[in-house]
Amino acid sequence: MSLKEIKIRLGSVRNTRKTTSAMKMVSSVKLRKAQQSIQFAVPYVEQLDHILKRLSGMPAAQKVSPLVVEREVKEVALVCFSSDSSLCGGFNGNIIKHSRALYDELYKVDKTPLVYTVGQKITDAFRKEGLTINAGYADMMAKRSYEEAASLADDLMDMYLNGHLDKIILTYTHFKSAGSQRIVDEVLLPVSVPAGETEEESDYILEPSAEELMKVLLPKVIRTKVYCAMLDSYASEQAARVIAMQAATENADKLIGELTLQYNKLRQQAITNEILDLAGGAQNN
């Protein structure tokens, strides 16, 4: 390459580095906010599980909602979570590949499994593959509101209670730490009630009854699971983007160093040639 070409390439790489560095900082801020959202939700989820566990040990609570009753699986629904945008490494590719493989497994049980997609990337990918999407929630990840997650959960509960579905699975990327995320498959319905020690109902004064409390708590648990899966996926997306942009910035730094060295060598060579030409001309005179 000539000096001019190297100079143009250096300018292009430096501009790219500015972009990747800025995206890394923005994603870092978003990641911290996403972690805070998860931390705020965790105590609520833990308390729900605690109450549910205590209630499940009471005799009256054994007459539970049909939301916990397992039945023969004939109709299945798959709810997949991805991001709305790219530049986050293999985040979207991994969840799309995993969801597609899970869909193939469910196809063996149900020839027409219902698919619900949350996130633009997985929605577009499934449509390109010709898979029928029962409902796409491409904008849900941008807002991440509890109301939208609860609305999706209510739709799924209605289909389960009406007998249109026998099993519902959530598949999303679970956020473990800034450097570790893993894809998980979680059964949303039927609800798995945590086993509790058998307790006598006379030990507590409950209003309303344990059975009525279970009917109220179970829908809350389902709505919370969908909401937490959305928060989990979003935090994992931002963590993956931070790592990807950090790697891109480091690669840009390395390339800038190599181009700068090459530019300096060619520039020095050009100066040396000019000096030699001047010295040769002086000798001829």
Which SSEs are present, and which pair or pack?
Elements: H1 3-56, E1 76-81, H2 91-107, E2 114-118, H3 120-128, E3 135-137, H4 140-143, H5 146-161, E4 167-177, E5 180-189, H6 210-284
Parallel strand pairs: 1-2, 1-4, 2-3
Antiparallel strand pairs: 4-5
Helix pairs in contact: 1-6, 2-3, 5-6
CATH architecture: 3-Layer(aba) Sandwich
Averaged pLDDT, please?
Answer: 85
CATH superfamily: ATP synthase, F1 complex, gamma subunit
**Helix-strand topology string:** HEHEHEHHEEH
Oligomer: single chain
Q: What low-confidence regions span 5 or more consecutive residues with pLDDT below 50?
A: 198-202
| Count of beta strands | 5
SS element count, helices: 6
- Estimate the global geometry from the Cα principal axes: elongated
- Tell me the major beta sheet: 5 strands, mixed
Strand content: 5-15%
Query: Distance between termini?
Result: 35 Å
CATH class call: Alpha Beta
What percentage of residues falls in helices of 4 or more residues? 55-70%
Class per helix and strand makeup: alpha/beta
CATH fold type: Pyruvate Kinase, Chain: A, domain 1
Radius of gyration: 28 Å
Number of domains: 1
Query: Can you list the strand order of the major beta sheet?
Result: 3-2-1-4-5
